[in-house]
TrEMBL record:
InterPro entries: Complex1_LYR_dom (IPR008011), Complex1_LYR_LYRM4 (IPR045297), ISC_assembly_LYR (IPR051522). GO terms for biological process: iron-sulfur cluster assembly. One of its GO terms (cellular component) is L-cysteine desulfurase complex. This is Complex 1 LYR protein domain-containing protein. Residues 16-73 form the Complex 1 LYR protein domain. CDD domains: Complex1_LYR_LYRM4 (cd20264). It comes from the Eukaryota. It holds the Pfam family Complex1_LYR. The lineage of its organism: Eukaryota, Fungi, Dikarya, Ascomycota, Pezizomycotina.
């Protein structure tokens, strides 16, 4: 009877830890900035991998509580980061630096819109 209670507690703990891990990864993907998204993902993975062999139930509970606090902090930070969105980077599939247009020129964003750098006046054609 006692062993089944321990097994149930371990399963619940494992479930809550995995749930926290997934929640942190999901919340990290909500950052507007690519670098912040990658940092949140890397930091979450590293922290969980560092403590994956932890056996002490009290220490596990402390780590889960710390993770929940960080999840709440990350939720606040993602909302704030969405207020200050910038143009997407090239690694995110943004237009800046991609070769597009009629002649394969590079498109750069200006305040007035997108202008192709390879566009030539019709006089030179």
């Amino acid at each position: 009877m006692a062993s089944s209670a321990l097994a149930t507690a371990a399963e619940t703990s494992g479930f809550s830890v995995r749930s926290l891990y997934r929640s942190l990864l999901r919340e990290g993907n909500k950052f507007a900035n690519y670098n912040f998204r990658m940092y949140a993902r890397r930091r979450t993975r590293d922290a969980f991998h560092e403590h994956q062999h932890e056996k002490d139930p009290r220490r596990i509970q402390e780590l889960v509580q710390k993770g929940l606090k960080e999840l709440q902090m990350m939720k606040r930070q993602t909302v704030i980061s969405q207020f200050y969105q910038l143009d997407r980077l090239v690694v995110e599939g943004g237009k800046t630096g991609q070769e597009t247009g009629d002649h394969g020129g590079i498109v750069r964003q200006k305040d007035t819109g997108y202008v192709s750098l390879s566009a030539q006046p019709s006089v030179f054609r």
